[in-house]
Amino acid sequence: VPDALEATYGSSAFVADAIDTDGDGVSDYLEDIYGSDKTNNAIFPQFTVGLDNTFATGGISNLDLYPGVEYPESLVQDSNSQIYVGGHGVTSGIEEHGSVYKLNTAGLLDTNFGTNGLKMITGDPNRVRDIALLDDTKIVAVGEINEGDPEQQHGLTAVLNTVDGSYDNGFNSGSLLSSSTTEWQQFWSVAVQPNGKIIAAGNTYDSKYIETHPLVTNATDMYSIRYNSDGTADTVGASFNTNQIERASAVAVQTDGKIVVLGNNINVDTGDIIVLRYLADGITLDTTFDAGNDG
User: Fold this and answer.
1) 89 to 73, 81, 184, 277: CA distances (angstroms)
2) Which residues, at least 6 apart from 218, have a Cβ–Cβ distance to it below 8 Å?
3) 235 with 225: CB under 8 angstroms?
4) What is the rounded CA–CA span in Å between residue 192 and residue 139?
5) Which of 64, 154, 159, 215 is the most buried (most CB within 10 A)?
């Protein structure tokens, strides 16, 4: 930063670049360097600040198609710059349902998708926690669903067509998939492998911990499972536990096929961040990763 500009704006170019006295979209800092001629297109389009006024209204798209509060959880963009927002919202009372919105490049709801741009996951109360694209033709949503008993949450996975938001007929016979065989489960993150297989990660009920700790009423393990493109389980779910509470919050696939899972553990008032890496089979910990601790 030149001395003359430091005397006016301080030593941080980042702070200086945020000051726009005349509100023309170009910071005072850059005007002092390049002048105020906005026709100098070789310079100013690269440095303009503020919201993109070509997107929605003044750079802001306000999504409000639920009667109650809405909670965004995840966002992805396809190769054509179409935007998908996953989350959930209150439909009546305290009942929530998962949602996927689709916006076009102008920031407007794509009315061909779902109902007026919103695909709501109807049926039993549920939440969408994360979304991912599958070859720009499908969108995968994961979360949790309450089927009858609010204390018995199950992992939710749905695959939607990106054009109209309908369920993909090739996945679980065109319906959402619930891990209803488990006692309690949530999915917080999803990743899609190049071969179309889906990896969902979250947490699952740890009955063994509770059996050995009589005073404990709640315990969970980090958990991940891989599904084939038709919704059948490709692997047995992989659980990991070191403490009372573990939860996987993110999952990613390496270029070599190995699977990385991020989470944390909590025990009373202490806790740690945990990063696991599995081999390509999805269930075997990679012992070459943090070799002293078996993956």
Assistant:
1) 11, 25, 22, 33
2) 210, 244, 245
3) yes
4) 10
5) 159
